[in-house]
Structure formats: structure tokens, C-alpha cells
Amino acid sequence: MFPKRHLPFVFAALVPLLMLLVVAQTPVEPWGDEAMLITNLLVPDLNIFAPLPHYEQAAPVGYLWLSRQLLEIFGAEPPFHVLRYLSALFIGLGVVLILSIAPIRRDWMAKIIVVALLLGSPMIWIYANEIKHYSAEFFASALVLACGIPLVTRSDMAALSLFLLAVVVAGLVSFTVPVVVAGMLMAIAVMRLRSDQPDRLAPAVVVTAVLAMVYLGAIYLFLNRGLVVWQIQAYAHVYSPEAGQGLAGLLVKRLGGLLDAVVNAFGPSWLSRVQGGLHLIGLPLGLSYHAIRLIALALFAALVIIARKSAPGLVGLTLGVFAAVAVLQLAGMLHLSYPRHAIFLMPFTAALMAISLSRLLGASLPQKSGAVIVATALVMGLWLGIGTALTRQTQELGKMLAHIRDTAPEAPVWINGSGQPVFELLAPRPNTVLGEMDSASGPVAWQVRGAEFLPPAQHGGEWLGNPDYPQSIAAQAAGQTELWLLFNNDPSAQDRIPFLSVAAKTVGPCNPAIEGHGAGLYYCARQGAAN
């Protein structure tokens, strides 16, 4: 008979296996952001220690190295699905590491809640299936959390060495781990100083902390800061959006960004539904956004209070990390502008929520009732999360290119700038391509240089389309009797009207050929030239 003591290990091993199996069922084409990164990964002599040469992209060196090794072993052909397996593996291993944390490892109900929360999160499945480094950020936080909690009470060489090894690995695959480790070490120092352990100021612990921060400081100063230089400069409206504001305005905006990070640390999907519900019942839209910020903050405080006795180490490290984020955010040194930027905080909030919910259920319900509730939550979480993963849509650009080859292969193809990264990855290319922009990385975003968008710095930091951009078709397609227009990653069909109007005047009437998800193909031809 199978020993019961092995069940937790089997349960943990099933998580990454499940994620890999689900991702295997979704072989979608790369999207725009993915395509921009893949373009760099395919550069034959890529220097992973220098800023990436195309599209102002950036990724940690460890992620780049692993991705290139996988492409070399399994082939660098579309749809590059092996890189989705890498993301799924990072997320899956991150969940396993969270399950290994002592307060969760000892609590079967907390283990199930962790899996239900994370595998029920659409955000987790999105980045488990995306060819970007955000999955590695999640993994890195889970790794240093799992290896860092023992340092609250232990000073032995095994625990210290394991933590240092975790920091070394995490530092190679994550941009955010220096913030995480700094916050954790601050919290560990406070908790050890407040304890009555005889070795609370053990020299080995101090040396370990110093070595960890020196290593991560060197990684940032001599590597990561250089890797992100083009991205920070080209997208200053995202990463430094506060130029020209007064002190009061700065503080208000930074505080709002900090509260948004707390919201996103819980996975924004369910809080977004709460916000939508509040707006639906009559709360003004602006107030509904502030309301979910306060709800997230209150939830965080409640979880800390509930879990502080049963998992003091986890609570302390979580508070330390969030304190570090708060200080850097309010100082303007950190900008978590999008939900994906806060994914590195999700291991902390998921673990904290699991411990708290387990404690509440255990204190208020019989064991069987609690088991039914968490089992139901697991089933519902898997249904929601896996459903999100399996319904991931593709833009079907390959299908559109095949249609071009089958119907009018000699007609030139004009592509909008936002669709260029995906278009350039798919082979074979049409004979004549119009509208391509220079993708070389630089201090100005490639789409601004290509005149698709206006310079954000000149328009209050907003990313606005250039109203003159559609006119580029007139010059590029002059004299043509037929033309394909290929749109990809554009906002909506309504935004295509100016382009179709210019093409109709320059070449001839335009008719839709294929519509995809966020993509569209149109055929324009003079009377008598149409196929």
C-alpha cells in the first residue's frame, strides 16, 4: 500500500505536471510582447550580458540563457512552444516551493488552499503560458522565501548555505529579487533581535546577509541596470512617469501606485470583479477603484493579524518585503506599473492567505466541513484557472499569411507597426512587405521612431497614436493596383478606418478577408485587378 507520508510529495509533484499538460494543449502563436523577446533570442551571436538589440526588450541573463539553450535543443521554429513549457515549469516549481514552507507543509488544509488560490488565478495561468520572464520572477520569490524562512530561527551552515544558493540562482533569473531579499533580511534581523535566542546575532548569519546583498548589489550595478537601459529610457512614461509634478502630486501618485501593487499582489482578477460590482450598484467609477485599493489593504492587514501566531516567520518576511516595496515606491525608485510587475509578490500573499484561511476554517468548523470547503475550492479553482488557460486565443496570423499565399501572393503586404514583431517571426514571408520599421533598440521607442505613436514626453506621458501614421500607406503603396493590409495587436476594428480610407484612395476599395482575435486582413484592389 502507498505510504501516506508520501502523499504531500505526490500532491506537490502533480502541480508542475498539471501545468505542463495544460500548456501543452494551447499551442498558440506568439503575441506582440512575446514576439519582440523571441526576436532577440533568435539573434545568432546574442550577447546576453548586454542590452537586447531589438525592440527595447529586457530579460534576466539566466532566463535568456535557459531560453536559448531550449531553442537550440528543441528547435527555433514557430510557435516556439518549448518556451511556454519553461514558463509553466517556473510557475509550477514556484508553487511547489510555497508548499514546502514549514507552516504550509505541516497543514494539509493550507496546502490545498494554496493550490486552489494559485491555480485558480487567471493571472498565474496567463504567465505560465507566456514567453516572458514574469514566471521566473514568481519562481525566484518563492525560492528565496522557502529558503529564507528557516533563517528566522536557524544559524546552522546548512540553512545559511541553502539560502545563499537560492539567492545566487534567483538573482540570475529575476530583476525583482534584490528588493525581495533586502526586505526579507531586514525582517529577519528585526525578528532575531527581538527573540531571546542565544545566537541571535550569530556572525555566520550576518556574513550570509552581507554576502547576499553584495552579490545582488553587484548583479544590479554591473549587469541588470545595463540590461534595462533601453527599456527604461524608451518607455520613460511607464517607468518614470512623474516628471514635472509637484511634491504633493508625486506623493499622491506614488501612494496610489503602492496601493495598486497591493491589489495586484493578490491577483487582480477577483478584485477587478468586485470593483465592477461596486460600479454596477451605483458607486462612481473613480471611487470604485479607490474602494478596491482599500479592500486589498484591509485584507492584507486582516491576514497578517490572523496568521501572526501560527506563522510568525512568514508574516514577518511578508511585512519586510512589502515594507521594502513601499519605501522604494514612495521614493520613486520602483514603479510597479502593471499587474504583471507585481507577480513577484504573489508567493507571499498566497502563502499568507492559505495559512489564515486554514486557521479560520479550523477554528470555526468541524474538520469534515472544512475538508469539504477546501476540496470544493480546489475543484472550482482548477476549473476557473484551467478554463482560462485552455481558452487562450491566438491571433491566427499564420492563417492570414497562408491566405495571402493562396489567393494573391504577388500583391504587396502592408503591416501596421504593432503587428510587425509577430509578422517577422512567421515564415515564409510575402514577396513584398511595406510599412516595416527599424526594430533596433535605442533611447526612443521603435514605434515612436517609426511614427506610429507620438512621443509620450510631449503629450503628458500618454501613449497616443500618431494621426499622420495612416498617411504612410499613400507614399508606400503609390502606383500599386492591389494591396493587402494586415493588422495585428491594434486596439479595435474602428481604429482601422483611417488606414482603410487611405488605402482605398491610393489603391482601390478594401474588403475584409479574415478577422482574428486582435488581428485583421484586408484586400484592396482597383476595379478589374481584384482576384
From TrEMBL:
Keywords: Membrane, Transmembrane, Transmembrane helix
Record bears the keyword Membrane: yes
Ranges that cross the membrane: 82-101, 108-128, 160-189, 201-223, 287-307, 313-331, 343-365, 371-390
Origin superkingdom: Bacteria
Protein name, UniProt field: Dolichyl-phosphate-mannose-protein mannosyltransferase
